Amino acid sequence: MPDRVFEQWLQDELRNQRPRGGRVDVIVEDQAVPEAQLGANVLGVDIAENLVAAGNARAEQFGLANLRFQWGDATDLKDLADDSFDLVVSIFGAMFAPRPFDVAKEVVRVTRPGGRIVMGNWIPNDPTFVAQLLRVSMAYSPPPPEGFVSPMTWGIEENVVERFGAAGIPAENITCERTIFLFETSRTPSEYLADFRDYYGPTMNAYAAAAADGREAELHAELEALVNEHNTAESGAGTRIEAAYLRVTVAV
Question: Which of 22-26, 158-162, 243-247 has the lowest mean pLDDT?
């Protein structure tokens, strides 16, 4: 269910890099296929082995010889050489890795001089859907370990500038913009919520913890109310939900 404005942004970034060769490192699977279809050399990196396998299956399904996936950790991309990629993309992915300063250092390291890094990061305490979904999910999840850095801190511009600054990027090379991602599907709000329950890590963890505490029905009722509250589609017309994110562009 990619947002059309969001897709156009990624396509524009890819076209801007095409004169340089157009190789793209995609951290999350959703954007890998469209970029490969535009002719880029795409490497998808994910820490989840099942998503790596699913990504490679999709590449084969679409007949994309220029797309492959491999396992990797955004905090230590040890299998990737310095200055390897013209465009590094992480959409709602690397923000969830621990040690954010290491993430910034690694994505800068593998980007060629003159290349770009683009990130989409959810914004903490935003009134739109995903920030509220994560707020509710955290309330049902076990306490984080000592030293835990919330992934939502990637949605604060000052943190983004500080982290990439520590990796050698001057502040004037970093732009941040609050942007709306539009989730739109013909599926019902309940079916849409089921995707988060079954496939989205923070929500999956919340459901597992709530079930262990005998509170799964309570969590589900709260999230059902949330998704219905944020759905702006007409009755019976599926689901249409807006979620704000911080759109980050870094010139290396």
Answer: 22-26
- The percent of residues above 90 in pLDDT, for the chain, comes to 62
Q: What is the pTM of this model?
A: 0.86
Q: Are 85 and 110 in contact (CB under 8 A)?
A: yes
Q: Let me know the angle formed at the C-alpha of 132 by 182 and 101, rounded to the nearest 5 degrees.
A: 90
**Residues 178-212 as b or e (16 or more Cβ within 10 Å = b):** ebebebeeeebbeebbeebeeebebbeebbebbee
Residue with token string 């709530």: 210
Q: Count CB atoms within 10 A of the CB of residue 118.
A: 18
- Strand-pairing partners, residue 43, are 25, 68
Q: How far is CA 159 from CA 19, 24, 162, 163, 171, in A?
A: 32, 25, 5, 6, 11
Residue 220: pLDDT over 50? yes
**% helix / strand / coil in the chain, to the nearest 5?**
50, 25, 30
Are 59 and 36 contacting, i.e. CB atoms less than 8 angstroms apart?
yes
Q: Give the best-scoring range by mean pLDDT among 45-49, 111-115, 169-173.
A: 169-173
Q: Domain coordinates of the chain in residue numbers?
A: 4-124+145-182+244-251
Q: What is the CATH number of domain 4-124+145-182+244-251?
A: 3.40.50.150
Contact 155, 121 (CB under 8 A): yes
